Amino acid sequence: MKAEISVRELNGVTQEEFLAILSGPADEAARWLHAAAEQGVTEAQAHYAQLLLDGKGVEQNMREAFLWFRIAASQEHAMAMNMMGRCYENGWGVQESMLLATYWFRLAAQAGLDWGMYNYATSLALGRGVEADREEAFLWLGKAAALDHAKSWNLLGGFHEDGWTGAVDMAAALDCYRKAAAGGDFRGEFNYGRLLASRGELTMALDRFVRAYRNPSATAAFRDKLRRYLEESPVDALRDLRAALD
């Protein structure tokens, strides 16, 4: 077992050397991040917590991950605040509570983090742990989208398509979905393709559906949804694509 990293070793490493360590083997990166976290380096605390949560370079320990996120969040680390929300949302190392999840999402949003804005807006839109307020959700999504947050562009498209905060605006919805797709969001790709198909622009729509299906971030549930959409389409080209996906 490797010896613990001393404070002297930690202080003697240059920024460039530390970055090289972090980009190297995960277990070595975890050792150095843990040492820095123990010395009160907030950024290291947040990153080490993420390694613990993912079980990357260190044995997975969601409870310990939560505790490190909490320490970093107490130092107003925006991503740690957001991850506190995610922990409470999913029961990662702590009892689930959408009330507390939304509390931390709000703090992360107020700290200027796009992911915090997106998660807080989602809670506001759905009334998760807070009274539903679609108008405020729309405002927070706009702030996140202005920071090029792809998933926020996708949700904004839904607001325009469904008329959640005003009249239905399909042109605005199409533009939002286009921006979400450009940002790599698989749901944005699907929604952009869906509206293109409704306009008869099938060649572009087919390309978007394939991109959405092949997106590395796409979930199994999403791929099932996309296959069902294609299967049930009255358009031959879309049903043919469903067969081609297999």
Structural account:
There is one protein chain. By secondary structure, this protein is an all-alpha fold. The chain has a domain at about 150-245: Serine Threonine Protein Phosphatase 5, Tetratricopeptide repeat, CATH 1.25.40. It has helices at about 5-10, 15-20, 25-40, 40-55, 60-75, 80-90, 100-110, 115-125, 135-145, 150-160, 170-180, 185-200, 200-215, 220-230, 235-245. α4 (about 40-55) packs antiparallel against α5. The radius of gyration is 21 Å and the shape is globular. The model has no long low-confidence stretch (mean pLDDT about 95).
Short description:
The protein is mostly helical and 246 residues long.
List keywords for this structure.
246 residues, mainly alpha, Serine Threonine Protein Phosphatase 5, Tetratricopeptide repeat, 72% helix, 0% strand
Structural topology:
Blueprint lengths: L6 H6 L2 H8 L3 H13 L3 H13 L7 H13 L3 H13 L7 H13 L3 H13 L7 H12 L4 H13 L7 H13 L3 H13 L3 H13 L5 H12 L4 H10 L1
Helix pairs in contact: 3-4, 4-5, 5-6, 6-7, 7-8, 8-9, 9-10, 10-11, 11-12, 12-13, 13-15, 14-15
Name the overall outline: globular
Radius of gyration: 21 Å
Q: Classify the helix fraction into a percent range.
A: over 70%
DSSP strand tally: 0
Can you tell me the CATH architecture of one domain? Alpha Horseshoe
Please mark out the parts with pLDDT under 50 across 5 or more consecutive residues, or reply none: none
Could you describe the largest sheet, including whether it forms a barrel? none
The CATH class of one domain turns out to be Mainly Alpha
Structure annotation, total helices: 15
Element order: H for helix, E for strand: HHHHHHHHHHHHHHH
**End-to-end Cα distance:** 47 Å
The CATH topology name of one domain reads: Serine Threonine Protein Phosphatase 5, Tetratricopeptide repeat
Strand content: under 5%
Given the helix and strand composition, which structural class is it?
A: mainly alpha
Mean pLDDT: 94
